[in-house]
UniProtKB/TrEMBL annotation:
Domain Helix-turn-helix, chain residue ranges per copy: 91-136
NCBIfam families named in the record: excise
SUPFAM superfamilies: Putative DNA-binding domain
A Pfam family reported for this protein in Swiss-Prot or TrEMBL: HTH_17
InterPro entries tied to this protein: DNA-bd_dom_put_sf, HTH_17, SinI_DNA-bd
GO molecular function ontology, one term from the record: DNA binding
Protein name: Helix-turn-helix domain-containing protein
Coiled coil: none
């Protein structure tokens, strides 16, 4: 057999197995499992019964973790001690969702007001949209 032809579209995989997802984030699989169980990282999608983590969802969850140092380190300690105050990283603001959908944040807020998109208030005032609701909305509005 000759040498393998290289893929002309070199790209990272979208779906990752558990071990690859943990490696992608640079954490041991035990910690990865703990973060998934606690809701700090997204759960897998099931593809024909196989658990596969979406790299884009892992990226979004990773961005929500605090940066080490200063008051962020204190927030991380508080998260470990008080599970009730864990910030769920799999949420969008109207602004971040507007970037994803290439529309205005006001359009997203209007969708929420009309009841077209579920949302909740964080801290009594800040609007947040769960990633699962975004995915469900996108799936139901495929053209």
């Amino acid at each position: 057999m000759g040498p393998k032809a290289e893929d002309p579209c070199a790209y990272p995989p979208r779906g990752l197995c558990r071990e690859a997802a943990a490696q992608y984030l640079g954490v041991p699989t035990g910690l990865f499992d703990e973060l998934v169980r606690s809701g700090q990282l997204p759960g897998p999608r099931l593809l024909s019964g196989t658990a596969v983590w979406d790299r884009h969802h892992l990226d979004a969850a990773f961005e929500a973790f605090p940066i080490a140092g200063g008051s962020s380190a204190r927030a991380l300690t508080a998260t470990r001690l008080e599970p009730a105050v864990i910030h769920h990283p799999n949420v969008y603001t109207p602004e971040t969702l507007a970037k994803r959908w290439r529309c205005s944040a006001n359009h997203v807020r209007n969708m929420i007001k009309r009841g077209d998109l579920p949302a909740f208030r964080s801290g009594g005032r800040l609007l947040r949209i769960r990633a699962d609701d975004v995915i469900a909305h996108e799936a139901s509005n495929l053209r």
